[in-house]
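Input/output pair, single chain:
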Amino acid sequence: MAIPDSLNPLGVPDFNGDGRTDLFSFNANIRTPEIMLMSGVRSLSSSSFSFTLDDWQDPKFGDFNGDRKTDSIWRNDKVGANAIWLMNGTTIESAAFLEPLQGVWTDVVGDFDGNGKSDLLWYNPNTGDYQVWLMDGLQRVKQTSGKIQQGWQATIADFNNDNRSDVFWRNPTTGENGVWTFDPQTLAIYGEFIPFKSPTWTPEIIDYNGNGRSDTYWRDRLTGQNQVWTWTVSGLQPNSTPIELPNVGGDFVIKTADFEGNGRTDFLVRNPSAGEDQIWLSEDTGVQILPFATQSAGFQAEIGDYNGDRFSDIRWTSTNGVQGTIWFSNGILPRAMVA
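Output:
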């Protein structure tokens, strides 16, 4: 939903490549990963691995060998270790440790050369060092590195619709923003700063108008204000003609989705304390607010496509983890409620 399918088909996991969102959990206490393959509300199979991964962070997902099945990249900051699992359903088909990186590094998964195989951007916010690794399965085939300012955060996007990953940079302390694009042959980086946005605003990369170019959805966590910056053929159009969305309280939770299957980003807007919900369908200059059957308080929402029909569904999970429900989209609103 947020990024074109050709760039990031596995932002949500699909370990067997059937087009349906699967479930991954990493128990915070025993640190044992578990995978559940989904088909609608049914579980096709599940696997709870017999080993624990102490001191390892939650994995990031990608497709490192281009087989359209979700793989995972693991990071252990304590010892600097990095590892990739190439997955086939619930089976680890092959795995390898990568070059270690000592210190606090953040890994961001993209496809910087557009070959359908995930690559890695590493950034150390404490030192400003970065590395870009082009990957082929478990092997790093090309690398570039350099240094920028400290304290930035990186998000994958595609602002020019060339099916290659760009990077949106945000400094949450200063409010500065920037964009990187890449030469796929040389890995040369072309960067530019874009307008400032106050540190109280949090960005998310979406495709608001469905034109294949990433846009930026902004939410002010203090005021509840919501806004979209769009990217056009000529470049980013932020402060001159921003798209203003309705304001909702700072305690509201907003999830991005595509309930109509038209490539435009829609929004699930939830008041978690009251158990009240709205759906906002994106239009050219705003959103259409539609009535929506609400879920009671005490549930959290996750967006996925659990039946593979290309419409976003909502998986509700109770905060105590005991109850679960999936609401399937019918192309307009998620209405079919199945426990």
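DSSP finds no helices and 28 strands in the chain. The CA atoms of residues 4 and 212 lie 6 Å apart.
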